[in-house]
Design goal:
322 residues, mainly alpha, Peroxidase, domain 1, 2 domains, two-stranded antiparallel ribbon, 14 helices, 2 strands, heme
């Protein structure tokens, strides 16, 4: 009798442990509520300072989070430097001389470490910076699920293969997002991040010189600073959204309807295909876009996070703890 009751107690303990460990592995907006209650204030204050120095940084950090999540999941792997024999993701074709804002992540991490040493992951800091960048440029805000841990690895190969290229067709874009459990609706909503920020001539040259679905006046405007023959002008920047380049609004979709998408991968969302109707809905209803964007950002932030005891909390976002 005693053995069966102790066995039952053991089962209860096991069940409790499994429940708590599975809960532990889920992300939650209140993850740091006790361990680092000032976290969100520190991130917001550092982000305000960064955007006062350069408004474009809001767009840059939103993109950094996207480029992190699409490679090995949202694990801070993009932040790792090439050190000795360690090869990170920063030199991958979609990232090199292109992803920026690493020093702002360093600054946030430094400020967080002063008050909460060894508690908050770089992956979570990147997710919060992306949210604040969006909000501070006039976009929506949302509760960011937290509790990600930092990777001890990076993948140059996956960064080169899985980050969607600006030349992709709609079909290939849908496939690239589906690989990350993101729907075509998520793709179209997340692409709205291109309502802010800039792109380099080498990313849109082919579209403005050879694209068939582009407003001729817009193509002419962009050709002024993007010469036909690279590498001449490769790094020259143009805004995704000519009208409100650093305001997070729904103008991106109005541009698509007017055939003024900067990248081929922008304009394919409105080119007689499956996303045309949704693009028109986002033009007519900015609140719907904002709400779908938030839903998609939370979904993207949930791509394969390291939780529980997996990974580590890096002391320095650029290197694995020694």
């Amino acid at each position: 009798m005693a053995s069966s009751s102790s066995c039952r107690a053991w089962h209860c303990l096991l069940a409790l442990f499994l429940l708590s460990s599975s809960a532990y592995s889920q992300l939650s907006p209140s993850f740091y509520a006790k361990s680092c209650p000032t976290l969100q204030l520190i991130v917001r204050a550092t982000m305000i300072k960064a955007l006062l120095a350069e408004r474009r940084m809001g767009a840059s950090l939103l993109r950094l989070h996207f480029h992190d999540c699409f490679v090995q999941g949202c694990d801070g792997s993009i932040l790792l430097d090439d050190v000795g024999s360690f090869v990170g993701e920063k030199t991958a074709f979609p990232n090199v001389d292109s992803v920026r804002g690493y020093e702002v992540i360093d600054e946030i991490k430094k400020n967080v470490e002063l008050l909460c040493p060894g508690i908050v992951s770089c992956a979570d800091i990147a997710a919060l910076a992306a949210r604040d960048g969006t909000f501070l440029l006039g976009g929506p805000s949302w509760s960011v699920p937290l509790g990600r841990r930092d990777s001890t690895t990076a993948s140059l190969t996956e960064a080169n293969s899985d980050l969607p290229a600006p030349s992709l067709s709609l079909n290939l874009l849908i496939k690239a997002f589906d690989k990350k459990q993101l729907s075509p609706q998520d793709l179209t909503a997340l692409s709205g991040a291109h309502t802010i920020g800039f792109s380099q001539c080498l990313n849109f040259r082919d579209h403005i010189y050879n694209g068939t679905n582009i407003d001729p006046a817009f193509a002419t405007l962009r050709k002024r600073t993007c010469p036909a023959q690279g590498p001449n002008g490769d790094k020259n920047l143009a805004p995704f959204d000519v009208q409100t380049q650093l305001l997070f609004d729904n103008a991106y979709y109005r541009n698509l309807v007017a055939k003024r998408g900067l990248l081929n991968s922008d304009q394919v969302l409105f080119n007689g295909g499956s996303q045309d109707a949704l693009v028109r809905q986002y033009v007519a209803n900015p609140a719907l876009f904002a709400s779908d964007f938030v839903t998609a950002m939370i979904k993207m932030g949930n791509i394969n996070p390291l939780t529980g005891t997996a990974g580590q909390i890096r002391r320095n976002c650029r290197v694995v703890n020694s």
